[in-house]
Amino acid sequence: MALASFSFCHRPSLGFPTPAAALSSRVSCSSHRLNTTLTEINNSGVIACLRANSVELALEAAGAALTGDISVASLLTATLFLIYLEVTMSTPGVFEILQELVQNHPRKIMGVIIFTASFGISVGTVLNAKDAKTAINAGAKFLMSPVIVKEIMDEVQGGEVLYIPGAMTPTEIFSAYNAGAKIVKVYPVTALGGTQYISALSKPFSHIPMVASQGIKIDSIGEYIAQGASAVVLSDAIFDKEAMGQRNFNTIHELARLAASQGVKAVEREKWCMLNSSIR
Fold first, then answer.
1. With contact defined as beta carbons under 8 Å apart, do 233 and 82 qualify?
2. In angstroms, what is the C-alpha Rg of the chain?
3. Which helix (H) or strand (E) segment is 84 a member of?
4. Among 114, 141, 162, 240, which is most buried by a count of CB atoms within 10 Å?
5. Which residues of 138-162 are buried (b: 16+ CB within 10 A; e: fewer)?
6. Which pLDDT does position 24 carry in this prediction?
7. Of the segments 1-5, 70-74, 191-195, 257-261, which one has the largest average pLDDT value?
8. Does the N-terminal peptide bond of residue 170 adopt cis geometry, omega within 30 degrees of 0?
9. Residue 225, CA distances (Å) to 54, 171, 230, 278 in order
10. Cα 205 to Cα 73: distance, rounded to the nearest angstrom
11. 76-106 b/e with 16+ CB inside 10 Å = b?
12. pLDDT tens-digit profile of 111-141?
């Protein structure tokens, strides 16, 4: 941001910050918050994603996961998604759910996954800046989508909310990063080859943080991170369909604890390996 070209940048200070200094301070603060969210995701290694068919079930399941040491959560509707929690478009009150979770778990990193709605054999993409703004106002710290949405990228540019666009091919991943993405979601990773695909991508794109998403199990978290992923998205692996159907929140809590533990161990192991490599 070229602030130096503005004439008021050079006005003498009378003890108060100049408009340019105030703006610079806000930008710096926003950048710090965004980087904090990115760091939390990288340190946790796991983003939990929940799909629920009612507000009540969504809140109870999310609460079980959040108390199971999951630190990064996401909620979804076919339009919006809070990373940890996916609420279908037919569920009323998605933004109210997000607000309640943020209020009850203020130290957790909540996000919203801007998703798509499927109708028959076609896919209607419900991805726009309006939904992104609503999610941000509800307390989302990050937004995630299955594709690159330039409208959302432009909306969050220079702000404090992290946007994680989805990409499938090397060209899409590189394009998302060049467009300003700090981290890119590789989706659908299992269908593309799983850990082998992440390993292949990490060779030319070692400078691009990647989140692996789709069909990942808890016991494969370590392998994904070892092969180059910064984190993984877990859905049914934590929010087990049978447990959800039986409202067995103890199982969800234990799965969340296990996933969180595996994620942290995998991240720490990778840091140790990188440190050893740099010393040699």
1. no
2. 19
3. strand 81-87
4. 114
5. bbbbbbbbbbbbeebbebbeeebbb
6. 52
7. 191-195
8. no
9. 33, 22, 6, 18
10. 26
11. bbbbbbbbbbbbbeebeebbebbbbbbeebe
12. 666 543 322 211 123 367 887 788 788 777 8
Higher pLDDT, 10 or 107: 107
| Whether 190 contacts 167, CB under 8 Å | no
Name residue, tokens 């590189």.
174
Question: CB within 8 A of 110, min separation 6: which ones?
Answer: 73, 74, 75, 82, 83, 84, 98, 101, 102, 139, 140, 141
Cβ-Cβ contacts under 8 Å for 50 (sequence gap 6 or more): 58, 61, 62, 65, 74, 75, 76, 84, 85, 86, 235, 238, 239
Q: How many CB atoms lie within 10 A of CB 255?
A: 23
Q: Where are the alpha helices (DSSP H) in the chain?
A: 19-44, 55-66, 94-104, 129-137, 150-156, 170-178, 195-202, 221-226, 241-245, 249-279
